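Worked example 4.2. Below are the chains of a multi-component assembly; read each line carefully before continuing.
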Amino acid sequence: MSDLPKSVRIIGMKPEQIGHLHPITQTIREIYSIFYDMGFEVAQGPELEYEYYNFDALNIPADHPSRDMQDTFWVKENVSKNPTKGPLGQNLGKRLLTTQTSAVQIRFMETHKPPFRVFVPGKIFRNEATDATHESQFYQIEGLLVEKNVSLAHLKGTLEHVFKKLFGEECEIRFRPSYFPFVEPGIEIDIKWKDRWLEVIGAGLVHPEVLCIGGLNPEEWQGFAFAFGVDRIAMLKFGIDDIRFLYNGDLRLINQF
Amino acid sequence: MKISRNWLKNYFDKPIPDANKLAEFFTFHSFEVEGVEEIGNESPAVSLLVETALPRSLCSSEDCSRPSDTASIADFIIDVKVLPDRAHYCLSHKGIAGEVSVLTGQAIKDLKIPDMLEATTEVGPMYKPSIIIQDRKFCRRYMGRYVENITVNQSLEWMKRFLEAIGQRSISGIVDATNFCMFDIGQPLHAFDADKIKGVIVVRPAKASEKMILLDGTEITLTTDDSVIADDAGPLAIAGVKGGKRAEVTSSTKRIFMESANFNPTAVRRTSTKYNLRSESSKRYENEITPELVSLGMNNICALIKEMNPEAKFGPIVDVYPVKAKQTVIDFDPAYIEKRLGVKFPFDEAKSILERMGIIIKGGDTSRWKLTIPFDRLDLTIREDIVEEIGRVYGYEHIKGILPPKTNMPVEILPIYYLSEMIRNNLVAQGFSEVSLYTLVEKGDIETAKPLARDKAFARKNLVDSTMTCVEKNALNADLLGLQTIKVFEIGKVFSKEGERLVLSLGVAQVKKIKGVKNESILVDALKTLKENISLFGNETKDSVVDIIDNPKIITKGNHAVCEIDLEEILKSIKLPAGASYKDLNFMPSSSNHYEKISLYPFIVRDIAVFVPESIQALNVWESIKKGIGATNAKELLVRHSLFDTFKKEGKVSYAFRLVFQSLERTLTDEEANAIMEKIYEVMKDKEWEVR
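Applying the procedure described above to all two chains together yields the following structure tokens:
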């Protein structure tokens, strides 16, 4: 039967017997298995997030051009006269649909003592027009490692290890300078996939200001952080050519995997 | 920002790398390049040849001067994506030239721009402007002067060409000159018609409901949060954002008031955002530029005016600069470079990089360095910034990856994640497929401020509504999917006034009704099986879990049924087993299948049942069906088949197959499907099998 399409089922197998995990879940699981072996634990944050965790605490102040880097779905509500306060008494500001898993960084630092290694899979939202490669919702994976004596070489080593496991030994990564307000230096990381360099990961060393806001002493602790889109990885791995197919609930796609 | 390579060349005595090489330098050492474009040459191939084939030494003499009016206007435009960190100094050709200098080691030449800060006259109608800054926090510096005896329209060919090269329309001599200066050094400038100004120039907050007409003729009503440049008669411009109509420079203008100033980034951003008036000027202010640049701006614009109007007379400059900018000094331990980059770094190389940036270094190899940062480098404030500068210029490719030290700490479990993943495993094993649907829907409690569409304005209040639609849609494709019952689930967040919760929804649709099996009972059974699985968690399963799972609220609609379970409630009443580990969940590598396009065209279903002797197996029948299909060259149209019925009777077996045909390119006709079936029947006939 080798000359028939792959999707054709083998005779005798009852198709109902087993269901299918969504391609995003499969991708997150495969990636987490690699990070698990490196000692990363899972953390998650809310999808309805406060301005403080999503922006302010990540060194993205109100009325700063860096806020333009992400189009945000703000919640339509009157700004309360008694704003919600965080555990340290900080004003948490307005609510929004979280634009980045990085928002979980501060939440985790507030409640945990270093050293730690954290893996954050999460759904995030961007208020931008949708097309085959852009969706208003998608999944991101955040990594955060805070220990003593952390350098860019550790960041590179970690991601090289992960992407070689994921895409094969021949996979290469490269660093380019970039800017994300909550890391310094800020790095954009490209991945070589089938002889093409693809811009996939934003990363860097955790900004000392962010460590301070998280209650850590930057003289003692350093860290690296990175984030990448799960959808992008899933689309590459499975050859899916339209991101919107991932969210329309169509089993004609999901049941292929 | 668009950068002209010809423009950049002005900054260097020696030839600079070609556009593609520059783009590569920027990409790996500065910022992203969005594109490189060749313009203004009718035969680009020839130009490319010259660009690459001529030895550098041969093109150096032409390479470094302003192009004469008759010179070739071929140019390369490099579109660089300057992010907020480098926007303080890189939204200009001067800033980019600085990057080129740092990256190539080539020194920037003396541009020999005449000193224009002295007045050429103080008598007659030329006088000193009176300038008042009311709010020093808003206006950090304001420099102004009158210039007379000018003709506005006389622009310069080379200047027009540079502006047009980066996509800026030529407007008039004076306006072109202010624009040229801004794109050259990054300082916004504004010229007012001096004869239309009445009295004293004041930088002040706008009055409540104060009105002004902008250059484009639109009227705007200001608030006290906005700041204006005003005279005795009212506002002349929205400070840093947009000029007003009243004192606009026109072709009849003979005298101008020239402004070079520095405004507060936040305030400019608020005003420009509020009125949707983003301009090249507001962009530079909102990213913050040093007030030290104001005098260079005034000098260079006046030099250009002089070049255009040799007879122009320049009045004295008034410079209101209440608090002089201070230079940042960073105390830096050079050992920090290696600690953060993770690569051995020679100190003299690091010093050389920093010095090329204009940073003044005090201190030797072994001691700490005192780094005095140039005024325009507002991005450099802490030692990590210095590490980045050294790392990026040196090149991150020199960093060799190392794994962080192995850790012996046990990996903590996040209970809600563990529970969700366990449920996923369980439901997939029970034949449910996982969907991930849209969070933003038509109705809900939590509304977004600027929705993408009216039917996507709210965060969903439940999952079941979309689960219902999802099973309905999939039921239509049941044959294509080879399913008799559609079973889906989703685990996701729902949102109410009280906040968000993680819930599980299940949906089922029996396409081919199984006798005595209700949709509801499929859901109830699935949850029962799930409960047994969850109960294995610990022996403390409380009644509430039993309740939630045993009495699910099932919604039915036609052939479909859905229900929703609150996972956070379940989590409250269970305990994770001692020693639980993610390893228990057996995460498998993702599927190795490659996506096959979903056809947009309808499919056709045909059933065939064949009576064959008992010795014939299903596979033999299938081979024959395949042979029949193969004879029609329609192999790729068969997208799904299944053996849906088998029974024995009188020493014979009946095999019933369902065949699904679909094309990726067109709508199949019944005739096409029939023709395929005919071929299959022929094969069956040859075998002397009975088609029922």
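Take a moment to check your reading of the output against the notes. The two ends of chain A are 19 Å apart (CA to CA). Chain A has seven helices and nine strands.
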